[in-house]
Amino acid sequence: MNNNVVTRLSSSGISKAVGNYTHITKIKPNSTFYTFSGQIGADLGGNIPEEFNQQVKNTFINISNLLKSVDLEPDNVIKVNIWSREEIDWEYFDKIYGDFFGEIPPSMTIAYVNALGLEAIKIEIEIWAAR
To answer: Which Pfam family, an example, fits this chain (predicted)?
Structure first.
């Protein structure tokens, strides 16, 4: 972690994480809290590709650009919510996710859903951050 506001903690007394996430994230008092609208896999021109993994890649590009727009980094992210209409290719997803968040990722929730805002959207990812 590169900041002194967000701490990702190990936990005891519960099962080991079944994915790349931290069970507990602590935020120091008097921090600024950010919530972001869910991001989708549209490219910078607004085009939504058909291919699921390209949507995943574009979504993380969009998240990166959002964070940069308010001078935040992936280390500032405290929570990730993921909604997917298709089975996630975990080998691909974990590579993108790991490259983005590093060795100690933030807290995360994943849900498979029947629909998102537009028919073309296959995955949507929402983040919360603190500084």
So the answer is: Ribonuc_L-PSP
